[in-house]
Amino acid sequence: MAPKTTPVGRAIDALRLLSVGDVAARDHVRTVRSTVAVANDDELLRLLRLLDAFDVDAPRVEHDLGRVAAAGDPAERRVALARLRHDLEPRRDRILAHLATPPGDLEFVVDLRAALLTFLEKRADAADLAPLDEDLRVFLASRVDLGLLELRRLTWADSAALLERLARSEAVHAVRGWFDLKDRLDDDRRVYAFFHPALPETPVVFTEVALTDELPASIRGILNPLAARVDPSQARTATFYSISNTERGLSGIPFGNALIKHAVEELRAELPRLRTFATLSPLPGFAGWVRELGERVDADVRAALATPAWHRKPLPAAALREPLLRLAARYLLVAKRGGGAPRDAVERFHLANGATIERLDWLADPTPRGIEQSFGIMVNYRYGLDRYAANQLAYAADHAIDAASQVRALAAFDPTVLDDPVTIVSRRHALLSVFSGFAARAKRLLARAPAPT
Length: 453
Prior knowledge:
Helix content is 52%, strand content 12%. By secondary structure, the chain is of the alpha+beta class.
């Protein structure tokens, strides 16, 4: 049981007992909010520990599990399972619901999670609160209903406060002042954002788009303010080159998946000549993966990479082009984490959203960060309107990767990694597995159906 010796401790304990919406809860919500408003880091960490104390009742859950195991008939088992589901909900959920309801608000809980994430990142004494973070993420995901998200195109006419927040939140390609931001909001550049009624005037996630004739092979051309402008009505390609959250407390909630598809629909309706929808994306873990391979990487490749500023020197850059592109293809198609999903986080995001790995782009990001993370290589993920739905299903079923033939060819011929055959689950195989599963389930249901009388 959480201690109740402080006003905030007593308020939190009371909120656990009161029904959400009860008038009596208002003063307790105000007590928690006023305490957080003036709390230092240690005090805020203690408050988070008060919330953490109201977890599931472990003995009750164990008792429920015993009842499920001992159930003698289907009806009794269903009752026991319903009770188990109820008791698996953390007791803090009711407290959080109070804090997200007036006189509280959802942004208060978002800020609490943002503070917790900072503690987890910077303080070793907060490591035991990682399960609380997951509970807060699940709670917020259930509250920020994706069906209520509103897509808006942001323009230079939006408020200065909103545009400043946009610039501050850009996580992929830093905004270099107001002129750079204005360029990203021009006619042949677009910024689309999702807004939610529970977080008014706060874009929860936004994406930046470049309208071009061809699929870009370098971020320099997109971000160059002196690049030739394209008439949006004549553009054939829409390239998503950045996607960022504005609220750290909402990280891990998949707003971005829906954002890209909604933006595609908006662009298609406005600009019917658009034919290609793709990304220009980083490979943030590629260079680290290559370094982990150590001596499995060809000695000449390692020597060239050790050359200072190799990407600015013609000879080492030319020598590294093919080996690194082949390694990048292998990284995308072969490197996995536990459970069989791709190792690269950006790749997981786009493949789970139905994209195809379309092309690898050499030295597409020669900035210090780009060289450090991926040796400057970037990826075009294409959102094929005729196949992303099937791709999404295949990836969900078996982590199947849809990749263009040129990417597969690069991965198949790689002399720099020894004894590492390429084995990839095909999109077709994964889809067949899904439909076979549907068919088997239908047969089982038919077998259980009562015979006609």
